[in-house]
Design brief:
Blueprint lengths: L1 H4 L3 E4 L12 E4 L15 H28 L7 H19 L7 H22 L5 H10 L6 H15 L7
Antiparallel strand pairs: 1-2
């Protein structure tokens, strides 16, 4: 609960992001957690469901940030890059408007986050982002909340499971 969180020791960590708006930090301390506040069923599957629900919102925010950078003259997009951004944003928007959660959503959302990560990396590596701090922010977002490697690894693992083994003769 927020009141409990305030009792923890917080220390700032690293340089702030997004023009000094977002500051990461470390948290240390001990809290008493009531039994009714604990997850009782589902284990990692519940966490995966929450992440699958939240990831499209993060991707939408990232694509909106790209648009904002472009509007500010801090990002130069080619027509193909704009189309990629618009496609990713539209897919994320569709996912955030969905009122049902299905098990297939996990892989779709991982693929969406992977595509977002790849676009951000591409823009920085191509030199489309002039400012070092903007470059750092975009690259950091590819590592926060599920790196490209993790998204790729989970998608690849699901493909191995989903494919039936060929029958032997």
């Amino acid at each position: 609960w927020p009141e409990q969180y305030k009792t923890l020791k917080r220390t700032l960590c690293g340089e702030p992001f997004l023009g000094d708006v977002v500051q990461l930090g470390n948290v240390k301390g001990t809290l008493q957690v009531a039994q009714e506040d604990r997850l009782k069923v589902g284990g990692p599957a519940v966490l995966n469901k929450y992440l699958t629900t939240v990831r499209p919102f993060l991707v939408r925010a990232l694509m909106a940030h790209l648009q904002w950078l472009a509007n500010q003259g801090r990002l130069e997009l080619t027509p193909d890059e704009r189309a990629s951004r618009d496609f990713i944003a539209a897919a994320a928007r569709t996912k955030t408007l969905a009122d049902r959660y299905e098990s297939e959503d996990v892989h779709r959302v991982l693929a969406l986050k992977l595509a977002s990560n790849e676009l951000l990396l591409h823009l920085v590596s191509r030199g489309a982002v002039a400012s070092f701090l903007d470059q750092r922010d975009l690259l950091a977002f590819t590592k926060m909340e599920g790196s490209s490697y993790r998204c790729y690894h989970e998608l690849r693992a699901s493909m191995r499971v989903a494919k039936p083994e060929p029958e032997s003769i």
